[in-house]
Design brief:
The structure is a homodimer.
Chain A (H helix, E strand, L loop, with lengths): L24 E3 L11 E3 L4 E6 L6 E5 L11 E2 L1 E2 L4 E6 L5 E9 L2 E3 L6 E4 L2 E8 L16 E8 L6 E8 L13 E5 L8 H4 L3 H10 L7 E4 L21 H16 L9 E6 L1 H11 L7 E5 L20 H7 L2 E7 L5 H13 L5 E5 L5 H11 L6
Parallel strand pairs in A: 14-15, 14-16, 16-17, 17-18, 18-19
Antiparallel strand pairs in A: 1-2, 2-3, 3-7, 4-5, 4-8, 6-7, 8-9, 8-11, 10-11, 12-13, 13-15
Helix pairs in contact in A: 3-4
Chain lengths: 381, 381
Amino acid sequence: MHFRPQFALLLIAGVHALAQAPVDSQPASSNVRGAAFPRIHTDRRVTFQVKAPGARNVQVMPGGGSNGLGKGPFDMAKSPDGNWSATIGPVQPGFHYYWLLVDGVPANDPASETYFGWGRQSSGIDVPDLALDFYEPKNVPHGDVHIHWYSSNVTGKMRRAFVYTPPGYGASARTHFPVLYLQHGAGESERGWTFQGRANFILDNLIAAGKAVPMIVVMDNGYATRGDAPPTAGQRGNEAFGEVVIRDLIPEIDRAYRTRPDRLHRAIAGLSMGGGQALATGLGALDTFSHIGAFSGAAGRNMDLKTASGGVFTNAEALNKRLKLFWIGCGEGDSLFPGAKRMHEELGRAGVRHTWWEGPGLHEWQVWRKHLHAFAPLLFR
Amino acid sequence: MHFRPQFALLLIAGVHALAQAPVDSQPASSNVRGAAFPRIHTDRRVTFQVKAPGARNVQVMPGGGSNGLGKGPFDMAKSPDGNWSATIGPVQPGFHYYWLLVDGVPANDPASETYFGWGRQSSGIDVPDLALDFYEPKNVPHGDVHIHWYSSNVTGKMRRAFVYTPPGYGASARTHFPVLYLQHGAGESERGWTFQGRANFILDNLIAAGKAVPMIVVMDNGYATRGDAPPTAGQRGNEAFGEVVIRDLIPEIDRAYRTRPDRLHRAIAGLSMGGGQALATGLGALDTFSHIGAFSGAAGRNMDLKTASGGVFTNAEALNKRLKLFWIGCGEGDSLFPGAKRMHEELGRAGVRHTWWEGPGLHEWQVWRKHLHAFAPLLFR
């Protein structure tokens, strides 16, 4: 990467945004080809810039309240050439959704890639953590992520899954692999774990280091409604997801890929909404799954172990025999953390064997990358 | 699909945008999940709507002068609830880039998917042609599109290609396939032929009907610069693409996929800038390629057959022996059409055997879908 200082000291009176010379900065990896901004400084401040001569007001708006860019909106300052700039931070490392507010209207930053989140294509910025490289592309063999289209009997529509196959999958035509079903969060899509989460690079690196067994990872869309019962008001549009997994997705994956099609070689996990779906689908089908993971505390908030998941927790001994891995994690800065931790404690009191992860982090992808990195090595052992 | 009339007659005085009751309309297939707008009417008018209470002026802007939505910008009209609407058209069938102008600032429509074009993520709308379904997903076997990461010695960086494998590729581990290298246009990316062009569905349908031989289609990014020579001002950033194809991409694809690694089973084609790259790369390496296609007239504008491509056209007999297919096409409404047609005529006079396509169409994806649909059946026969 080259350091290209794009502008000298900007002096603008009467505005709050800091616009300083980014002499020690470089374009974010999430920028589109050739875009000089956003720029990430060595101290993890970030400078945004956009051309908007006709706007009265432009701001940088982080996506949601649990966002490593901080609480927005951040005012941008206008220069005589019509460019608006702001330097914020230092910010947290990791992937953060954001958008610009142009006269109050949410607009993507043309200089950044878009990522499906918040129910639409949102701008995103990936801020490196210089102490972590487990999710960076390295000089190791890379697996493919297949975009896989299939017909769903449950929804009556075509669906699309992203399917990671491990390095060498194409060559070793006789080897069959275990499968992890891995779900995104609310407002996201089947694309999230690849483009925001970098699940493929996390697995590439773990497999190359011998820390995870080679596996297929199926990332489907968590939204699904029955074809014969359109969603009614108040529903989230994800009501038929579990049924799609059992009736459509697993048979399709076992048909189209070289899998080991039994419960011992099948796991399900997810983040936030996807974590709740993994718990509901996995615990409801222990003849299908033997490994379950819930990232960032979904469904932990008000869980009653007596009634949850059809009472499966009331017989800890039976559950412990069936479940090879029950994994729960949450970032300490996540508003769901207290509920997740309470679930961990209640499971412990009930004698349900499980693995608990806690550590710094918000309700954001950087935590979920860490979760996958901790979870995947424990699978299929 | 359900017809859901979302609003009744909008009466707004003093504005130019037509806002009528879309009782015979439905959401575009390019909308994000659940978005009611943009809506496509049965007469191919399109109604756009966006919430922008703080904006003084909002317009719909088609991407470029050769766009099936027509010449913009189109004014939107504000309703008391802060929604802005416009109904335009009837528009041309096909995929069209567009964006909104919010107080003059380009902003994506949050209701539409984004597609990499114009050097950034742009909104897009796909308007069906009721007379054509060759690019629609049908109830036939579907191939996967692999997202494939590889290291380039030429650029010194990691690159990403999209690779279509035909239906059954995963199952029939002994079959090897011919390969088409297929390139996007300027300002686009390796994603274009899948998400804008629907190359995978075009091939699925052709293969299911027995009209094309099963093949692998490699769609790489057309931008590449040498790692040891950063681009200088005035360059497009695509200067090293041909070298990447020959030195990095083809060896990588022949290593990672079950190909037939010889010139008779290798084709290269592209649209616009990618057509020029296909001509330059293909004609410059006839020991590597035997089929070449140029969609939408790239490089045809001022071609001198005496000097073009190292003089390869001066010996028509030798060229005709080497080239199994030389395919050129252009839409009649494309500003490049006269140049492309002149190239076709000069090739004819020079005795260079080739296939020529002309028909209605602009410099847009609908023509390139038709080109691929006409071109692919002629390959590897």
